[in-house]
Amino acid sequence: MNDPTLPALTHHTPAQTYAPAPAAVELAAERAPVVWVPDAYGRMVPMPKHLAPAPVVRPEPRDLTPLPLLDPVAQRFVGAGIGGGALAAGTGYGVGEIVNAAAGIGSGALMWAALAVLAWRLPVRGITGGRGSTVNIRKAVIKRSTFNG
Fold this sequence. Notes:
The protein is mainly alpha-helical. The chain contains two helices and two strands; from the N terminus they run αββα.
């Protein structure tokens, strides 16, 4: 088992092998503060505070009151649009009815009214010869008193 190609073994004593190296003394006041943070597996591990991630800032609480289904401004716009459309439609319908009535008066009703006035006045003038009409009023008062007593 003695192979000449292998280096010669040196014999070490256990005191030489396990002798601690001289170390500096660390005082508690000189030690950096340590914080415990969760690792990737959920275990808490110590970490120097200056190397730890910044703490998560708690967000402000949100307002969780329910909002209306439609925006109130949008509701006003829709109401104004519907009301304005109804107003325009009613105005247009009313103006159309007035124009139709005026056209009816101008073409038919006015002609019939003129014919009615002429028909009413013509026979009187024809009978009287154009002198007008005379009206005789007779007033008779008959009074009878009886006593059945």
